[in-house]
Write a structure and sequence with these properties.
It is a single chain. The longest helix is centred in the middle third of the chain and has 21 residues, at 70-90. The protein has a four-stranded antiparallel beta sheet with strand order 1-2-3-4. The protein has one domain: Phosphorylase Kinase, domain 1, CATH 3.30.200. The chain has 131 residues and is α+β, with helices and mostly antiparallel strands. It is built from two helices and four strands; from the N terminus they run H-E-E-E-H-E. Strand 2 and strand 3 form a beta hairpin.
C-alpha cells in the first residue's frame, strides 16, 4: 500500500527519527502494510513496520486527521491530546497504548505502537469520554 500523500510520510518519518526509531530522517519510510479509517471517520491510520535490531521489526500506527473534516477534526484532535496528556501524567500501565513519548500535538500526527504485541487474548478497545 502507498502513503495517501507525501506529507503524511514526511511527518511520520520526522517524529520517528526524533524518537530514535527511524535511523535517517532523509530516507523515506517503508510503505504502510495497512491503511484504515478512524472510529469517527475523520482520520487516516497508517500501519507501518519499522526495522529493529536483527531481523525483527516493530509495528507503529500513525494517525492523521482528514482535511475534508478539518473543523471537526481540529476539535477531536484537541480533545484527544488533552486525554493523552491526562493519561501520560496519571497512569503508567502497559495496557494503555499512548503515543510515543517524543510525539507532541504540534507534530500533526499521533504515532503509537500498533498494539500487535499485546498478550494473547487481550483486546484493544477505544477509550472515549462520555458526551
Amino acid at each position: 500500500m502507498e502513503w495517501k500523500n507525501i506529507q503524511d510520510e514526511q511527518k511520520t518519518r520526522a517524529v520517528l527519527a526524533r524518537a530514535g526509531v527511524w535511523y535517517d530522517e532523509n530516507r523515506p519510510l517503508p510503505e504502510p502494510f495497512d491503511i484504515k479509517t478512524g472510529v469517527g471517520n475523520v482520520s487516516r491510520l497508517y500501519f507501518v513496520h519499522i526495522p529493529a535490531q536483527g531481523s525483527a521489526y516493530k509495528e507503529y500506527v500513525a494517525k492523521f486527521k482528514d482535511e475534508a473534516h478539518l473543523e471537526k477534526a481540529s476539535e477531536r484532535s484537541a480533545a484527544e491530546w488533552k486525554a493523552i496528556q491526562d493519561l501520560r501524567n496519571s497512569i503508567q500501565s502497559p495496557y494503555i497504548l499512548l503515543p510515543i513519548p517524543q510525539n507532541t500535538p504540534e507534530d500533526g500526527v499521533i504515532i503509537s505502537d500498533s498494539g500487535s504485541k499485546l498478550e494473547q487474548g487481550k483486546d484493544c478497545v477505544t477509550l472515549a469520554r462520555p458526551t
